Amino acid sequence: MFIEEFDLTDNLMLDGCIHASSNWLVIEKTPANQLFTYLGGFKKCLIAAKEMQTS
To answer: For residues 22 and 49, is the Cβ–Cβ distance under 8 A?
Structure first.
């Protein structure tokens, strides 16, 4: 899969929107053999969402 390089964190030009709203973005290094199946970042998002609900 190819994603165009825009020199932004997420390659989708959403850095400004994230900064203006939540200022929270999960970035996770993905093992090369798990590019489309790795759930490490998703798990971090779930943990953070749970913490936000309980605080």
So the answer is: no
